Protein 1
Amino acid sequence: MKTMSAGVRCRRQTVTVLFVDIVGFTSMVDELDCADVRELQVDYFRTVSAVVRAAGGVVEKFIGDAVMAVFGATGARAGTPAGVRTAAAAAVRAGLGVQEALRGRLLAGRFPVRTRVGLATGDVIVDLDEAHDGGYGMVSGSVVATASRLQSCAPHDTVVVCAATQSASGAAVAYQELPPVSLAGKPAPVELWRALELQETRTLQPCA
């Protein structure tokens, strides 16, 4: 563990970050009353959070229609090679699970939605005192921005991941390689993989 400043307990480790959002959310809510938007968001956030937590992830924040979650920040194996692999596979399971939970469902009993999910694995600084649901700013590192940008360019109704996530979870998840994508701030195109389905139940225990 490394203390970054007085009173703050932090450590460097590898985690997987998940971003999910609703496709076309802005145009959808422009036509709704704010009370309807609230009902939609509450049902959406509740559904996504339940799937993330069941997979061992921590919900870091809600932003509009986006949910950010972190896998592998806590637990006895956090940051170990086995823990990194388990966390990456759990994050993919959560991404696929979110889409399955929302497929064909009417949020708040009225609103059909489509989602897209982006995942990235990499080194961060974890604030151990904020490593809990709603722990805003619990991780710091470029992997957070990478996951967000991957989500924004994901095809509708898909879960896409970076090469590090694919490498860490490849024994547990079947993937389809997609053309590399150019992301803002990245000097070269980023390799992209689409998660298709889970392969091995023995590797898919919650990562906590």
Protein 2
Amino acid sequence: MITTERTILRPWRDDDLDAFANLLADPEVQADAGGPVDRDAAAAKMARYRDAYDRLGYSRWVVTDHDGDFLGYVGVMPIDAWHPRAPNVEVGWRLVRRAWGSGLATEAARASLVDGFARCGFEEVLSYTEAANHRSQAVMRKLGLERDESRDFTSTYDGHTWSGLVWVARRP
């Protein structure tokens, strides 16, 4: 578990599924991810995150406030083998709308990156988003990530063509 000034990053629990499914069912939250997904897809994604944590010791963390209210997720995941930026790891986040614009994504992502570099020994961590996702790009800038246009990509998966702008965090 990682504690920041306003958040707690912790491993997934079975009772997170309802809040997670609600997050992924929100069309605005999922606008850059191909749209909302159903509960079964959310459960599969949560299982993937839990499996990564069990196998690797790192994954997307659940983000809560200090009262335990679910805010979303943040963390480092291995990039899937089929992805154009593999092999590598990627930091990502997705928060409930009520948390947008508050700096919580930056705060939690920064803590996750510190953990990834210090505990996991990563030399670099990528992050990517679509050109239209200005909120995530703002988080990337606030985190001090550097744009690497040479790594930008276009890929198709699950019937969705996605173009990613790549940013890089390097070990301090």
Protein 3
Amino acid sequence: MSDSHDFDFLHGNWQVRHRKLATRLAGANDWSEFDGTSSTQPILGGQGNVEDNFIDDPVGAYHAAALRAFEADTGLWRIWWLDLRSPSEVGVPVVGGFEGGSGTFLADDHWNGAPIKVRFVWLKQAGVGPRWEQSFSPDGGRSWELNWSMQFS
């Protein structure tokens, strides 16, 4: 069962190794790897947190933020994404929670005008530290394509 301390493992400053698929939902294998930094701190009296990222993507470096809030009545987390490539757009929140050492968060969204499902997976300990993965599904969640991972150390 999720609680407001689920993301406490992420508090602090991190080096991040990104692995990102350039062409999504096309069967591509054009991965790039690059570095970044991340800093997460609690907000909302411990019922949420904000993650500030510098992403040194070879296509163009940028800053981005994740905002997370825990809803005690439902036991669910909501996660929003905002980055400076499109600062007027806050992403659709993914919603979910943790079981054991991993958390799964889902949303309905669009990619290139088509409806998709988005899945975030958080692994509290994956190698040297936490790991985040993003996958898209064009078929209602029957199949998933991993398109971005972040390994924190």
Protein 4
Amino acid sequence: MVTNSPLSLDPAPHAAEIDLDALPGNAIRRMQQIAVAIFLQEAESTGITPVQFAALQALANSPRVDQRTLSRSIGFDTSTIASVIDRLEARGLVQRSLDPADRRVRLLALTPEGEAMLARVVPAMQRAQERMLQPLPPPERAEFMRMLLTLVRGNNAFSRAPAGADGV
């Protein structure tokens, strides 16, 4: 006997009829996979990942911020951003320095090598964005981005790493 009880091990009778392509969460997950793959193809020669790009660009936009501020600005959790910064620092793209106002805080900034890498990766990132949106007719691209950002902003509080006031 099939029941709809949450404790039942049997699936609900309608579960087999769910069309995954009709679920926004499934489509968003697939688009994220596609977006990462396209970015990595375009930026392959730089060895920069989408998250590393976001960190580099955020530091170019707001130099000398602490790690927590950086993580909020790109919507990434603070524990994971530490390893991203470690890898960028190991490559000589980011430097940490003590905050003169609070010596417990380390401020992050791009190195000259980081600025050069960012200049090199931006054209690849732009090609990736164009490829992601290419299936949409040009007039629909701005509307898609408007709707997507409405969803992101409206659901930001549910994220494991909500973007801050300056983030998306």
